[in-house]
Amino acid sequence: xxxxxxxxxxxxxxxxxxxxxxxxxxxxxxxxxxxxxxxxxxxxxxxxxxxxxxxxxxxxxxxxxxxxxxxxxxxxxxxxxxxxxxxxxxxxxxxxxxxxxxxxxxxxxxxxxxxx
Length: 116
Hints:
By secondary structure, the protein is α+β, with helices and mostly antiparallel strands. It is built from four helices and four strands, in the order αβααβββα. It has helices at about 5-10, 25-35, 40-55, 105-110, and strands spanning about 15-20, 60-65, 70-80, 85-95. The longest helix has 13 residues, at about 40-55.
């Protein structure tokens, strides 16, 4: 999509933060390449995502704007004996087209990561 289309979408942005689904694997793989520099094959990304989605320790949320996956955050359980239960951010990526719009902050500040 062109930058103009992304800007138009953002102006009327309908941001939703929701749990990741296996159908998001391709978009996540593209974000990993374009925004994080990780060249990891789509099929292996999908396999790994299936595994993580089944895990009780991992939580992956996606930021969706009008049906487009604009970003994601992956967190897992982090427990130590000197502090309450926490989530450790393993990865966070936001499409360059949607950066500086607060999407990353909204993705990690939701109630979804405050569960024990």
